[in-house]
Protein backbone atom coordinates (compact mmCIF):
# COMPACT_ATOMS: atom_id res chain seq x y z
CA UNK A 1 0.00 0.00 0.00
CA UNK A 2 1.55 3.29 -1.06
CA UNK A 3 1.87 6.16 1.39
CA UNK A 4 -0.56 9.04 1.14
CA UNK A 5 0.86 12.16 -0.50
CA UNK A 6 1.99 14.84 1.94
CA UNK A 7 -0.42 17.65 2.74
CA UNK A 8 1.81 20.21 1.02
CA UNK A 9 1.30 18.36 -2.26
CA UNK A 10 -2.42 19.14 -2.24
CA UNK A 11 -3.67 22.11 -4.19
CA UNK A 12 -3.93 25.27 -2.10
CA UNK A 13 -7.24 26.27 -3.67
CA UNK A 14 -9.84 23.62 -3.01
CA UNK A 15 -12.20 25.27 -5.50
CA UNK A 16 -11.13 27.17 -8.63
CA UNK A 17 -13.68 28.80 -10.93
CA UNK A 18 -12.52 30.33 -14.20
CA UNK A 19 -14.47 32.21 -16.85
CA UNK A 20 -17.79 30.87 -15.55
CA UNK A 21 -20.77 32.23 -17.46
CA UNK A 22 -24.43 31.34 -17.57
CA UNK A 23 -26.99 32.70 -20.03
CA UNK A 24 -30.53 31.40 -19.73
CA UNK A 25 -33.00 30.99 -22.56
CA UNK A 26 -34.32 34.39 -23.45
CA UNK A 27 -30.89 35.99 -23.13
CA UNK A 28 -30.73 36.64 -19.38
CA UNK A 29 -27.04 36.51 -18.40
CA UNK A 30 -26.88 35.41 -14.77
CA UNK A 31 -23.11 35.00 -14.58
CA UNK A 32 -20.52 36.95 -16.54
CA UNK A 33 -17.11 35.29 -16.78
CA UNK A 34 -16.69 34.72 -13.05
CA UNK A 35 -13.20 33.95 -11.72
CA UNK A 36 -12.99 32.84 -8.09
CA UNK A 37 -10.58 30.77 -6.00
CA UNK A 38 -11.55 29.34 -2.61
CA UNK A 39 -8.71 28.40 -0.28
CA UNK A 40 -8.66 25.10 1.54
CA UNK A 41 -9.95 25.38 5.09
CA UNK A 42 -11.30 28.93 4.97
CA UNK A 43 -14.71 30.43 5.62
CA UNK A 44 -15.62 32.45 2.55
CA UNK A 45 -18.68 34.72 2.56
CA UNK A 46 -20.27 35.56 -0.77
CA UNK A 47 -22.35 38.72 -0.50
CA UNK A 48 -24.67 40.28 -3.04
CA UNK A 49 -28.14 41.78 -3.40
CA UNK A 50 -31.10 39.70 -4.55
CA UNK A 51 -30.64 38.65 -8.17
CA UNK A 52 -26.87 39.18 -8.08
CA UNK A 53 -26.06 35.64 -9.23
CA UNK A 54 -25.26 33.92 -5.92
CA UNK A 55 -27.72 31.06 -6.32
CA UNK A 56 -26.75 30.48 -9.97
CA UNK A 57 -23.07 30.34 -8.99
CA UNK A 58 -23.73 27.80 -6.24
CA UNK A 59 -25.96 25.80 -8.55
CA UNK A 60 -23.24 25.66 -11.21
CA UNK A 61 -20.62 24.42 -8.75
CA UNK A 62 -23.01 21.84 -7.27
CA UNK A 63 -24.13 20.50 -10.64
CA UNK A 64 -27.65 21.92 -10.46
CA UNK A 65 -27.10 24.52 -13.21
CA UNK A 66 -25.30 23.82 -16.48
CA UNK A 67 -22.87 26.67 -17.22
CA UNK A 68 -22.73 28.25 -20.65
CA UNK A 69 -18.94 28.52 -20.47
CA UNK A 70 -16.05 28.23 -18.05
CA UNK A 71 -14.35 25.64 -15.85
CA UNK A 72 -14.89 24.51 -12.26
CA UNK A 73 -12.12 22.56 -10.52
CA UNK A 74 -13.06 20.91 -7.22
CA UNK A 75 -9.93 19.77 -5.36
CA UNK A 76 -8.24 19.08 -8.68
CA UNK A 77 -11.26 17.40 -10.31
CA UNK A 78 -12.91 18.97 -13.35
CA UNK A 79 -16.54 19.33 -12.32
CA UNK A 80 -17.80 19.02 -15.90
CA UNK A 81 -15.71 16.01 -16.93
CA UNK A 82 -15.73 14.14 -13.62
CA UNK A 83 -18.86 15.54 -12.05
CA UNK A 84 -19.55 12.55 -9.77
CA UNK A 85 -16.14 12.77 -8.11
CA UNK A 86 -16.32 16.54 -7.90
CA UNK A 87 -19.86 16.57 -6.50
CA UNK A 88 -18.98 13.95 -3.87
CA UNK A 89 -16.57 16.47 -2.35
CA UNK A 90 -19.32 19.04 -1.89
CA UNK A 91 -22.11 19.34 0.63
CA UNK A 92 -24.98 21.76 -0.05
CA UNK A 93 -27.32 23.24 2.53
CA UNK A 94 -30.12 24.97 0.62
CA UNK A 95 -31.98 27.98 1.90
CA UNK A 96 -35.36 26.27 1.72
CA UNK A 97 -36.31 23.49 4.14
CA UNK A 98 -36.62 20.87 1.41
CA UNK A 99 -36.91 17.51 3.15
CA UNK A 100 -39.61 14.93 3.99
CA UNK A 101 -41.30 16.24 7.14
CA UNK A 102 -42.58 12.74 8.04
CA UNK A 103 -39.10 11.18 7.88
CA UNK A 104 -37.06 10.42 11.00
CA UNK A 105 -33.88 12.41 11.56
CA UNK A 106 -31.34 9.58 11.61
CA UNK A 107 -32.90 7.84 8.61
CA UNK A 108 -32.93 10.92 6.39
CA UNK A 109 -29.27 11.61 7.20
CA UNK A 110 -28.28 7.99 6.47
CA UNK A 111 -30.27 8.10 3.23
CA UNK A 112 -28.42 11.24 2.10
CA UNK A 113 -25.13 9.42 2.66
CA UNK A 114 -26.32 6.58 0.44
CA UNK A 115 -27.21 8.97 -2.37
CA UNK A 116 -23.47 9.57 -2.86
CA UNK A 117 -22.67 5.85 -3.03
CA UNK A 118 -21.23 5.76 0.46
CA UNK A 119 -21.56 2.50 2.37
CA UNK A 120 -23.88 2.35 5.37
CA UNK A 121 -22.03 3.56 8.46
CA UNK A 122 -24.11 4.21 11.60
CA UNK A 123 -21.00 5.49 13.42
CA UNK A 124 -20.55 8.35 10.96
CA UNK A 125 -24.24 9.23 11.10
CA UNK A 126 -24.05 9.28 14.89
CA UNK A 127 -20.94 11.47 14.83
CA UNK A 128 -22.59 13.99 12.50
CA UNK A 129 -25.77 14.10 14.57
CA UNK A 130 -23.85 14.51 17.81
CA UNK A 131 -21.73 17.31 16.35
CA UNK A 132 -24.93 19.21 15.54
CA UNK A 133 -26.67 18.45 18.86
CA UNK A 134 -29.20 16.27 17.06
CA UNK A 135 -28.43 12.87 18.57
CA UNK A 136 -31.22 13.16 21.14
CA UNK A 137 -33.60 13.90 18.25
CA UNK A 138 -32.47 11.00 16.05
CA UNK A 139 -35.80 9.16 16.28
CA UNK A 140 -37.98 12.26 16.00
CA UNK A 141 -39.88 13.12 12.86
CA UNK A 142 -38.58 16.25 11.17
CA UNK A 143 -42.04 17.84 11.41
CA UNK A 144 -41.71 17.73 15.21
CA UNK A 145 -38.55 19.86 15.27
CA UNK A 146 -38.15 23.60 15.71
CA UNK A 147 -37.03 25.76 12.80
CA UNK A 148 -33.46 25.87 14.09
CA UNK A 149 -33.33 22.09 14.50
CA UNK A 150 -34.73 21.56 11.01
CA UNK A 151 -31.92 23.70 9.63
CA UNK A 152 -29.42 21.57 11.57
CA UNK A 153 -30.91 18.49 9.91
CA UNK A 154 -30.24 20.06 6.50
CA UNK A 155 -26.62 20.58 7.53
CA UNK A 156 -26.39 16.99 8.81
CA UNK A 157 -27.72 15.70 5.48
CA UNK A 158 -25.09 17.76 3.64
CA UNK A 159 -22.31 16.41 5.87
CA UNK A 160 -23.42 12.77 5.79
CA UNK A 161 -21.14 11.85 2.87
CA UNK A 162 -18.11 13.58 4.50
CA UNK A 163 -17.57 16.40 2.00
CA UNK A 164 -14.52 18.66 2.00
CA UNK A 165 -16.52 21.73 0.96
CA UNK A 166 -19.80 22.88 2.48
CA UNK A 167 -22.05 25.44 0.77
CA UNK A 168 -24.45 27.21 3.13
CA UNK A 169 -27.11 29.26 1.37
CA UNK A 170 -28.48 31.72 3.94
CA UNK A 171 -27.70 29.36 6.87
CA UNK A 172 -29.44 31.40 9.58
CA UNK A 173 -32.43 32.62 7.58
CA UNK A 174 -35.61 32.37 9.61
CA UNK A 175 -33.96 31.66 12.96
CA UNK A 176 -33.87 33.94 15.97
CA UNK A 177 -30.78 35.76 17.23
CA UNK A 178 -29.89 33.12 19.84
CA UNK A 179 -30.08 30.27 17.34
CA UNK A 180 -28.15 32.35 14.84
CA UNK A 181 -25.29 32.68 17.32
CA UNK A 182 -25.37 28.93 17.92
CA UNK A 183 -25.25 28.40 14.16
CA UNK A 184 -22.19 30.61 13.89
CA UNK A 185 -20.42 28.62 16.59
CA UNK A 186 -21.31 25.38 14.84
CA UNK A 187 -19.99 26.64 11.50
CA UNK A 188 -16.74 27.69 13.17
CA UNK A 189 -16.36 24.19 14.61
CA UNK A 190 -16.88 22.64 11.17
CA UNK A 191 -14.05 24.81 9.83
CA UNK A 192 -11.89 23.71 12.76
CA UNK A 193 -12.62 20.11 11.74
CA UNK A 194 -11.18 20.83 8.28
CA UNK A 195 -14.30 21.61 6.24
CA UNK A 196 -14.06 24.55 3.83
CA UNK A 197 -17.14 26.74 4.28
CA UNK A 198 -18.72 28.92 1.59
CA UNK A 199 -21.76 30.84 2.71
CA UNK A 200 -24.16 33.34 1.25
CA UNK A 201 -25.97 35.58 3.66
CA UNK A 202 -28.17 38.64 3.96
CA UNK A 203 -26.95 39.12 7.52
CA UNK A 204 -23.84 41.20 6.95
CA UNK A 205 -22.93 40.75 10.63
CA UNK A 206 -22.80 37.01 9.93
CA UNK A 207 -20.02 37.52 7.40
CA UNK A 208 -18.30 40.06 9.64
CA UNK A 209 -18.39 37.61 12.55
CA UNK A 210 -17.17 34.46 10.80
CA UNK A 211 -15.58 34.96 7.39
CA UNK A 212 -11.87 34.90 6.64
CA UNK A 213 -12.46 36.44 3.22
CA UNK A 214 -15.32 38.32 1.61
CA UNK A 215 -16.48 38.19 -1.99
CA UNK A 216 -19.06 40.58 -3.41
CA UNK A 217 -21.08 39.68 -6.49
CA UNK A 218 -23.40 42.04 -8.34
CA UNK A 219 -25.15 41.71 -11.69
CA UNK A 220 -23.43 38.39 -12.30
CA UNK A 221 -19.90 39.71 -11.79
CA UNK A 222 -17.46 39.37 -8.89
CA UNK A 223 -16.63 42.96 -8.04
CA UNK A 224 -14.36 42.30 -5.07
CA UNK A 225 -12.57 39.51 -3.20
CA UNK A 226 -10.58 40.53 -0.15
CA UNK A 227 -9.43 39.43 3.28
CA UNK A 228 -12.04 40.60 5.75
CA UNK A 229 -9.57 42.42 7.98
CA UNK A 230 -7.92 44.14 5.02
CA UNK A 231 -11.31 45.09 3.60
CA UNK A 232 -12.39 46.73 6.83
CA UNK A 233 -9.02 48.49 7.14
CA UNK A 234 -8.78 49.89 3.62
CA UNK A 235 -12.42 50.53 2.71
CA UNK A 236 -13.85 51.10 6.16
CA UNK A 237 -14.11 54.62 7.49
CA UNK A 238 -13.57 56.09 10.92
CA UNK A 239 -15.75 59.07 11.72
CA UNK A 240 -15.77 61.52 14.62
CA UNK A 241 -18.55 64.04 15.13
CA UNK A 242 -17.42 66.99 17.25
CA UNK A 243 -20.11 69.07 18.92
CA UNK A 244 -18.71 72.61 19.25
CA UNK A 245 -19.21 74.84 22.26
CA UNK A 246 -19.47 77.90 20.01
CA UNK A 247 -20.34 77.94 16.29
CA UNK A 248 -17.53 78.44 13.79
CA UNK A 249 -17.77 80.84 10.86
CA UNK A 250 -15.40 78.57 8.89
CA UNK A 251 -12.78 75.90 9.35
CA UNK A 252 -9.56 77.66 10.50
CA UNK A 253 -6.60 77.68 8.06
CA UNK A 254 -4.62 75.63 10.59
CA UNK A 255 -7.05 72.75 10.04
CA UNK A 256 -7.41 73.16 6.27
CA UNK A 257 -5.33 70.03 5.58
CA UNK A 258 -7.52 67.88 7.81
CA UNK A 259 -10.57 66.04 6.36
CA UNK A 260 -13.12 68.07 8.28
CA UNK A 261 -16.62 69.16 7.28
CA UNK A 262 -18.51 71.98 9.00
CA UNK A 263 -22.26 71.50 9.38
CA UNK A 264 -24.73 74.01 7.96
CA UNK A 265 -25.55 75.29 11.46
CA UNK A 266 -21.79 75.77 12.10
CA UNK A 267 -22.01 73.86 15.38
CA UNK A 268 -20.64 70.48 14.34
CA UNK A 269 -17.38 69.28 12.80
CA UNK A 270 -17.29 65.86 11.15
CA UNK A 271 -13.89 64.20 10.79
CA UNK A 272 -13.78 61.28 8.31
CA UNK A 273 -10.78 59.12 7.42
CA UNK A 274 -10.22 55.50 6.45
CA UNK A 275 -9.72 53.03 9.25
CA UNK A 276 -6.20 52.53 7.95
CA UNK A 277 -5.41 56.26 8.16
CA UNK A 278 -6.79 56.40 11.69
CA UNK A 279 -3.69 54.58 12.94
CA UNK A 280 -1.49 57.57 12.09
CA UNK A 281 -3.99 60.42 12.33
CA UNK A 282 -6.39 59.41 15.03
CA UNK A 283 -8.59 61.20 17.52
CA UNK A 284 -5.80 62.10 19.93
CA UNK A 285 -4.08 64.11 17.20
CA UNK A 286 -7.36 65.77 16.24
CA UNK A 287 -8.08 66.81 19.81
CA UNK A 288 -4.59 68.33 20.11
CA UNK A 289 -5.10 70.32 16.90
CA UNK A 290 -8.50 71.58 18.04
CA UNK A 291 -6.97 72.72 21.33
CA UNK A 292 -4.07 74.39 19.49
CA UNK A 293 -6.61 76.32 17.41
CA UNK A 294 -8.51 77.36 20.53
CA UNK A 295 -11.63 75.44 19.53
CA UNK A 296 -13.68 74.18 22.48
CA UNK A 297 -16.05 71.26 22.09
CA UNK A 298 -18.67 69.70 24.32
CA UNK A 299 -19.22 66.28 22.68
CA UNK A 300 -17.17 63.82 20.66
CA UNK A 301 -18.93 60.81 19.12
CA UNK A 302 -17.07 58.20 17.08
CA UNK A 303 -17.96 55.26 14.84
CA UNK A 304 -16.29 52.94 12.35
CA UNK A 305 -17.80 51.63 9.15
CA UNK A 306 -19.26 48.17 9.40
CA UNK A 307 -19.02 45.57 6.66
CA UNK A 308 -22.58 46.53 5.78
CA UNK A 309 -21.53 50.12 5.07
CA UNK A 310 -18.75 48.88 2.80
CA UNK A 311 -21.05 46.42 1.04
CA UNK A 312 -23.65 49.08 0.30
CA UNK A 313 -20.98 51.44 -1.06
CA UNK A 314 -19.53 48.71 -3.29
CA UNK A 315 -22.88 47.64 -4.71
CA UNK A 316 -24.04 51.20 -5.34
CA UNK A 317 -20.71 51.98 -6.95
CA UNK A 318 -21.08 49.04 -9.36
CA UNK A 319 -24.58 49.91 -10.55
CA UNK A 320 -25.06 50.06 -14.28
CA UNK A 321 -25.67 47.43 -16.93
CA UNK A 322 -28.19 44.61 -16.90
CA UNK A 323 -29.28 42.73 -13.85
CA UNK A 324 -28.16 39.20 -13.00
Describe the structure.
The longest helix has 16 residues, at 177-192. The N and C termini lie far apart (50 Å). The chain contains 10 helices and 14 strands. By secondary structure, it is an alpha/beta fold. The chain has 2 domains: 11-232, Rossmann fold (3-Layer(aba) Sandwich), CATH 3.40.50.300; 237-304, Alpha-L RNA-binding motif (Alpha-Beta Plaits, 2-Layer Sandwich), CATH 3.30.70. 31% of the residues lie in helices and 27% in strands.
List keywords for this structure.
elongated, alpha/beta, 324 residues, Rossmann fold, four-stranded antiparallel β-sheet, 10 helices, Alpha-Beta Plaits, single chain, disordered N terminus
Helix content: 25-40%
Question: What about the largest sheet?
Answer: 6 strands, mixed
Number of domains: 2
Element string (H = helix, E = strand):
EEEHEEHEHHHEHEHEEHEEEHEH
Taken from the alpha-carbon principal axes, the silhouette is elongated
Largest sheet, order of strands side by side?
A: 6-7-8-3-9-10
**The level-1 CATH class of the largest domain:** Alpha Beta
Low-confidence stretches: 1-9
- Kindly estimate the percentage of residues that lie in beta strands according to DSSP: 25-35%
Q: Calculate the terminal CA-CA distance, rounded to whole Å.
A: 50 Å
Question: What number is the mean pLDDT?
Answer: 85
Query: So how many helices?
Result: 10
CATH architecture of the largest domain: 3-Layer(aba) Sandwich
Rg value:
25 Å
CATH superfamily of the largest domain: P-loop containing nucleotide triphosphate hydrolases
* Number of E-type strands: 14
- Overall structural class, as computed from helix and strand content, comes to alpha/beta
InterPro entries: AAA+_ATPase, ABC_transporter-like_ATP-bd, ABC_transporter-like_CS, ABC_transporter_ATP-binding, P-loop_NTPase
Organism: Sphingomonas natans
GO molecular function, one term: ATP binding
Domain ABC transporter: 15-244
Amino acid sequence: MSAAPPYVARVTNILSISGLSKTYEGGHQALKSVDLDIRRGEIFALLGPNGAGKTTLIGAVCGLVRPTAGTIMVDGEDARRNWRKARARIGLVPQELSTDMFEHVAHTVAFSRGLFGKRRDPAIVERVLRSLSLWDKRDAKIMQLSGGMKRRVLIAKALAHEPDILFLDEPSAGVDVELRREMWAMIGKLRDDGVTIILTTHYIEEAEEMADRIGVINKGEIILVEEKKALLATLGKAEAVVGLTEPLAEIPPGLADWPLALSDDRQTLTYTITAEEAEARGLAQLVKRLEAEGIDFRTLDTRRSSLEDIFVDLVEGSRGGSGA
